[in-house]
Specification:
Layout: E1 5-6, H1 16-22, H2 32-49, E2 55-59, H3 62-71, E3 79-84, H4 87-98, E4 102-107, H5 116-125, E5 129-135, E6 137-138, E7 143-144, H6 147-154, E8 161-165, H7 177-180, E9 184-188, E10 199-204, H8 206-214, H9 224-231, H10 242-258, H11 260-280, E11 284-285, E12 294-298, H12 305-314, E13 318-319, E14 321-322, E15 331-335, H13 342-358, H14 367-375
Parallel strand pairs: 1-13, 3-4, 3-5, 5-8, 8-9
Antiparallel strand pairs: 2-10, 6-7, 9-10, 11-12, 12-15, 14-15
Helix pairs in contact: 1-10, 2-10, 5-6, 11-13, 11-14, 13-14
Length: 379
């Protein structure tokens, strides 16, 4: 029997309190009991997203809300900027293409920073841009992008909205919608919200709702206006993922009790400990501006990153993640979000040391764990 530890960037570990709530007898979604649950969830989602507006809830993966952020905001023939620097940035451009939106891409080498000035220059050079689509964290590379700075630029363009994929960012670091001027912020249940996959979220600004009024892309399931009108009555347009929303109420209670500032500080410390431990083993961090959500580590010369990921999982019970697409075999990833704590980081680094030893990498055993412990001493 082997104990398993989940440090992937989604799904993440689910707290026992949340699991127990989801295991309770199911209730009917048109019943006042469910309306009570949804009313509380609505208010706490506003707290999490930093907005006075409603945060829409969908029974889907996060990609469903990403798709809705195109189909509910734009029309065929519109132009949008898509910042592509990883697998999920590329997804924005693919969704735009599927619905006849012209994607003007800002392509960056995977792992590189985004200069906000690039966004401003692209806006100036391409009149009529209706939306800018970007990530908060590019999960495939471990990069954190400068959302606040980009939002400050887009705010100066009244006919352009900023749409942010915050699926691996919401609940991990600051993304206050109203304060920064984010127009659409997308989230997902299986990350910092400590739930199984199956729920997607979208916070929508007043400015974005004006764009919604003129959108001409056909929509049915992801009809945001219908979802809004139902949500304001503590209902959903279609049958919701009832048990997940019951679990969401519990996870949001836990988040609110801990406080967002404390949570953000915790994840900063956990991620820093992971990075510093990797460096102590002679490894390199892939992202130039690392995210506190997930650390992408470059595999040593001559060692397959997939072999590192698979050995940690199969032999030592620690599930992280490998590289994706062009990074497959070149990096591996360890996440620090959701229900993660300092002992998860120490366990992951210990498993990494065992794995590297098994694969023939030369280093001083225990050095990474010692560095992690030192970084985590005040948490």
């Amino acid at each position: 029997m082997q104990k398993r530890y989940l440090l992937a960037p989604g799904p993440t570990t689910i707290p026992p309190e949340v699991l127990l709530k989801m295991a309770e007898p199911i209730i009917h979604h048109r019943n006042p009991l469910f309306e009570e649950v949804l009313e509380e969830v609505r208010q706490n989602l506003k707290y999490l997203f930093g907005t006075k507006n409603e945060v829409l809830i969908f029974a889907s993966s996060g990609t469903g809300a990403m798709e809705g952020a195109v189909t509910n905001m734009l029309s065929p023939g519109d132009k949008a900027i898509c910042i592509r620097s990883g697998k999920f940035g590329e997804r924005w451009a693919n969704i735009c293409k599927a619905y006849g939106v012209e994607s003007i891409n800002i392509d960056l080498p995977w792992g590189d920073d985004l200069d906000p000035g690039l966004v401003e220059r692209t806006l100036k050079e391409n009149p009529g841009i209706k939306a800018v689509y970007m990530q908060a964290t590019e999960t495939s590379t471990g990069v954190r992008f400068p959302v606040k700075e980009v939002a400050a630029i887009v705010k100066n363009y009244p006919d352009t909205i900023l749409v942010v994929d915050g699926i691996t960012g919401v609940g991990v670091f600051e993304l206050p919608m109203d304060e920064w001027g984010i127009d659409v912020l997308v989230g997902g249940s299986q990350k910092a919200l400590m739930l199984p996959p199956g729920l997607a979220f979208a916070g929508v600004s007043d400015k974005a709702w004006e764009f919604n009024k003129t959108s001409k892309i056909p929509k049915f399931y992801f009809n945001w206006q219908k979802e809004l009108s139902n949500l304001q009555k503590n209902q959903t347009n279609f049958t919701p993922a009832i048990s997940l929303i019951v679990g969401l109420r519990e996870s949001l209670r836990m988040i609110k009790a801990e406080g967002l500032e404390n949570i953000y500080r915790k994840f900063d410390i956990l991620a820093n400990a992971t990075r510093e431990a990797a460096k102590a083993l002679g490894l390199k961090i892939f992202a130039k501006t690392p995210s506190p959500a997930v650390t992408a580590i470059v595999a040593p010369d001559g060692i397959d990153g997939q072999a590192i990921y698979k050995t940690m999982w199969k032999k030592y019970g620690v599930t992280g993640a490998g590289g994706q697409d062009q990074l497959k075999g070149k990096i591996f990833r360890i996440a620090t979000l959701g229900y993660a704590d300092k002992y998860d980081v120490i366990t992951a680094i210990a498993a990494l040391e065992f794995t590297l030893r098994d694969l023939g990498y030369k280093f001083e055993m225990g050095k990474g764990v010692a560095k992690a412990v030192d970084c985590l001493k005040d948490l």
